[in-house]
From TrEMBL:
Pfam entry (one): FolB
Lineage: Bacteria, Bacillati, Actinomycetota, Actinomycetes, Propionibacteriales
Designated name of the protein: 7,8-dihydroneopterin aldolase
Function: Catalyzes the conversion of 7,8-dihydroneopterin to 6-hydroxymethyl-7,8-dihydropterin.
SUPFAM superfamilies given in the database record: Tetrahydrobiopterin biosynthesis enzymes-like (SSF55620)
Keywords carried by this UniProt record: Folate biosynthesis, Lyase
GO molecular function: dihydroneopterin aldolase activity
EC number: 4.1.2.25
Amino acid sequence: MTDEISVTGIECFAHHGVLDFERRDGQTFVVDLTLGVDTAPAAASDDLHDTVDYGSLVAAVTTAVQQDPVDLIETLAQRIADVCLADGKVEWARVTVHKPDAPVDATFADVAITITRRAPRD
């Protein structure tokens, strides 16, 4: 049984997109994370080293979003999942990338992709 740690609504300004003006002007992306983590060791020890330091993780995710523009939010979501899974305590990561200002010629609330990735097993 795996517990879940979630951090939602991480706002990042970045320059991802297929269109030239998206790369030039940038826009806001919003990231939601849910991580599969065994929290029992941390609950027993009350020690941050026994769990995922979500403050540090959010900083690393923000850096990953803000660097190296890509065309697709699918690529960005995978990059973020890789950052999450780099922490050995994370068994799986569910990542949602929202692109609320996507260049869509219609009234809409949000464009988002959600992926789930598992840590490789030894």
